[in-house]
Amino acid sequence: MPGRAMSHDRPAVMRMPLRTLEKSQGEAPSEISERTKLALFEQTIVPHLSAAYNLAVWLTRNSHDAEDVVQEACLRAFRFFDGFHGDDGKAWLLAVVRNTCHSWLRREKGNKTMVMFDEQMHCSDLDRTNPEGLLLEKVNVGSLRECLNALPLEYREVMILREMEEMSYRDIADLINIPVGTVMSRLSRARRRLEACAAARAAGGLA
Amino acid sequence: MTCSSSEHLLELYLDGELAVRESAEMRKHIGGCSTCANQYQRLEQIRTDIRMHVGRYEPPADLEQRVRAALRKAAVEKKHPGWLLANWMAVAAAVLLCVSIGWNVALLRSHSSANDLLAQEVLSSHLRSLIGAHLMDIPSSDQHTVKPWFNGKLSFAPDVKDFARQGFPLIGGRIEYIDDQPVAALIYQRRQHLINLFMWPAASSSPSGYSAMKKRGYSLVSWTQDGMTCWLVSDVQTSELEQLAQLYK
Predict the structure, then answer these.
(1) Is residue A15 situated within a structural domain?
(2) Chain A residues whose beta carbon lies within 8 Å of the beta carbon of residue B42
(3) A36 to chain B, minimum CA–CA distance in Å?
C-alpha cells in the first residue's frame, strides 16, 4: 500500500477502541483477536464500500470486474489492517482498491485486447431521473461520461477522487503516492481534455 | 492580479486549495475579468455535470453481504495457518504468473506476491543483522575458512566466493532462518556498506526468475542458480547488487 497514505504522524485514534474492545472481551490487551479485528474492520472500512465500488468501476471500466476487485481489495485490506492507524478509513480503502485495480488492469492487458461492451457502463440510465432536462442532457451527459471514461487512467483516477470523492490535493497525492504538484497538473490536463472531448462530441452531434 | 498569472490559480480556487487571502483576491479578480469568469464557469460546469448528471456507480445490493461473508471466512481461516498457507500459495502462484517486469515500487509495497513476502523476510533478516551484534558467526575474509564452517550446520554446501579484487570483499558468514529453514548468509562489504547474500536450496514451487526490487530504500536482487535460491540485500544501488550477482554466477 502507498506508505504516504498512512502517515504515522497522525494520532492513532483507532488504537483506543481496539484496546477498549479487548478489555471488554477479557482478552490479553497486547493481542488483538481476529474477531475484534473483524468487528473493527466492519465498522471503519466496510461503510466505504460504495465509494470503493464507484472508483473500481471507473478504473476498470467494467462493473462485473469492479465487484471482484472490490472483494479482493477488501480481503487484502483486512489482511493488512494492522498497518491502518485510523487516519481515514475511506482513503485507506480507496488506496487498496486503486492498487488492486492497477494490478487487475495490468493482468487484463495481457489477456484481453478487445474492450467488452458493458451495458451498465456504456448506457446511462441516470438521465431518466431528470425528465425535464432529458433532451438537453442526453447529448451532454452521455458524452461527458464517455469522455470521462476515455481519459487515460492516471487522469481518470484523479478526476474521480477529486470530483466525486471531493478529496483534497494532499489526500489524493498521499493515496496515489505522487507529489501534490503532479496531482495539480494531472487534474488540469484532465479537465482540458474533458472540455475538448465534450466540445468535439457536441459539434459532431449537431452536425 | 493579471489574467495570465491567475490562469493556474483558477483551478486551485475551484478546488478550494487556495489560502483565504489568495482566495479572496481570486474572487475579486473573477468579478472584474470576463475571460477568467468564463473559464471559471466552464470548469464549474464540468464539476456540476459530473456530480449531478454523470453520477456515481452504485454497488449491487448484495455486494456488501458477499464482502462481509468473505471477510468472516478470511478471519476464521487466519486461525488455521495451514489453510491460510495453502490459500496463499494458490494466490501467490496465480499472482506470480502475472508479475510483469515493470512492476513498480508502489505495487511491491502492496505485498501481492509470494516473492514479495519473501523479500520482506530477507530484508528483515538483513536489518536484524545490522542492528544486533549478530552480523557474523564466522568473521573471515578467507573463503576456504568460511565454506567449511557451514559443514554440518546446513543440509547443503553453499558456494562461498570472495570478490575482494572486484570491490566486494567477503567478510564473513552466518546462519539465518528464512522461509522456514536454516539458510546460509554471506556478508560482503562494499565501501562502507554491508551486503547480505542469502542462499538456500530452491523449492520446486519457488519462482526461478531473476528479480530486482527496492523496499524501504533497500535494494534486493534474487535469482536461482544450480538449484539454489539466492537473495542479495543492501542499501547500495541495485546496479551494484546486480554486479555482485553477475560475479557470483
Answers:
(1) no
(2) 195
(3) 10
> Domain with A159 in it: what CATH number?
1.10.10.10
To probe the interface with A, which of B8, B15, B48, B62 has the most A CB atoms within 10 Å?
B15
Higher pLDDT, A176 or B128: A176
Strands, E assignment, chain A: none
- Domain tally, chain A: 2
Which fold, B102-248?
Phosphorylase Kinase; domain 1 (3.30.200)
Tally of CA atoms within 13 A in the half-sphere of A142 that contains its CB? 17
Name every chain A residue with its beta carbon within 8 A of the beta carbon of B43: 191
Does A141 share its domain with A99?
Answer: no
Single out the residue in A68, A88, A116 at which a domain terminates.
A116
> From the list B11, B49, B110, which residue is nearest A1 (CB)?
B110
| Three-state DSSP state, B190 | strand
For chains A and B, CB pairs below 8 A equal 131
Structure ipTM over 0.85, yes or no = no
> Which one of A81, A116, A151 terminates a domain?
A116
pLDDT tens column, A189-204:
999 999 899 888 877 7
Are A204 and A144 in the same domain?
yes
pLDDT tens profile A174-192: 999 999 999 999 999 999 9
Phi then psi for residue B234, to 5 deg, are -170, 175
- What pLDDT, on the 0 to 100 scale, is given for residue A43? 87
Q: Is B143 exposed, middle or buried (0-12, 13-18, 19+ CB in 10 A)?
A: middle
For chain A, the average pLDDT equals 76
Q: Mind spelling out the 3-state secondary structure of B79-107? A: CCHHHHHHHHHHHHHHHHHHCCCCCCHHH
Residue A62, domain extent: 32-116
Q: What is the DSSP letter of A125?
A: -
Check whether A107 has a pLDDT greater than 70.
yes
Residue B136 has pLDDT above 90, yes or no: no
Q: Which residues of B touch A42 (CB under 8 A)?
A: 68, 71
Selected residues 163-182 of chain A with any CB under 8 Å from a CB in chain B:
163-164, 168-169, 177
Q: Which of A147-151, A162-166, B147-151 has the lowest mean pLDDT?
A: B147-151
Share of chain A above pLDDT 90, in %: 45
